[in-house]
Amino acid sequence: MKQSLAICLGTLLLSTAASAEVHISGFASVVGGQVLEGSGVEEFGLEPTFLADYPLVGAYTEEWSFEPDTLFGLQFSADLMDGLSATAQVVSRGADNFSASFEWAYLSYELNEHWTLQAGKKRLPLYYYSDFFDVGYAYPWIRPPADNYTWQIFNYTGASALYNYLIGDWTMTGQIYYGREDDEPNKLLSEFFFGASTREIWKDIGGLVVQFNRDWLDIRLTHMQYNNERFIGGEQRIWDNGSTERKGKFYGLSVNVDWNNLLVLTELNRLTLEGSDLDTYLVTLGYRFGDFLPYVSYSDFDDGSEIHNTTSVGLRWDFHPSAAFKIQYDDVTDDGVGAGTPDSWRVAGDAKAISLGVDLVF
């Protein structure tokens, strides 16, 4: 399904190149880093590790590497006129051995000045930076804090309706969406958590995003629910409720301030899974000095068993209109606890890591 959709949209973009306006844009991040010190998780034979990108298992060790955060992307947009357009985005990531894949592939139809309908493969709009997670130039950090951006599923195939309205001095935007995702093998669950090929299925994904913006203040609210099935090593998992499916409900709030030179970024999220709660949040403070933006950030993940947080200090330097140099120090504390030994619910252990690189758009 995913491959067929991407081929159809790619063919459409190419076939209309002679008669429609096709816009090509791109982005890239070239980042290197390493673990300065860390505990690892001895029980799992895991060496000192900093897990920078959960969905794609972008992990740094004590050996310097450019793979976990480095990526290149191209986006193709074809205006087919009369409100119809096609968009496709191809991304190649170091964390995925630089194999290229379609991250976005969808059609858009503009109903009127307020509403646009879309259908195809898109990024799941859970977090504030979900839609442009891969575009490092769009945010201050090297990457969005991993404690907050931890999901094993980050795309969906389905339909959505985007809207925008002016309410007094406020701009209201958002979307309503519905779809599903069937990921096999799921990289995070297969390679990092279970050590066996894992098929992760999210069915009946339905969500709503509402965002309000006025001058220096940006407020975003989101809600999503879905049904989850999972197969590990070919065997279907039976959840604690005795069923082959479990229902998840996600709630999120972001309040961001960009006032004069002061930058304050916040996100607060809760996932409810069959009566248990998983909470994450982040807070980032930054202050611009001309082309320089030093910042400090704190993020936290807590579901009662898996517990970890990260304190980050970094600097962004906009040395070019289309490029920024960044350097960031991360200090991760992994306090996971559970049955058996304290290591039972640790993800990667404590770690201190350094990373630096360049983000650009073109």
UniProtKB/TrEMBL annotation:
Keyword Secreted: no
Alphabetic keyword roster: Signal
Entry keyword Signal: yes
Porin domain ranges (all copies): 13-349
InterPro entries, per the entry: Gram_neg_porin_domain (IPR033900), Porin_dom_sf (IPR023614)
Any one GO MF annotation of this record: porin activity
Gene Ontology cellular component list: membrane
Transmembrane segments: none
Secretion signal, residue range per the UniProt entry: 1-20
Lineage top rank: taxon: Bacteria
Designated name of the protein: Porin
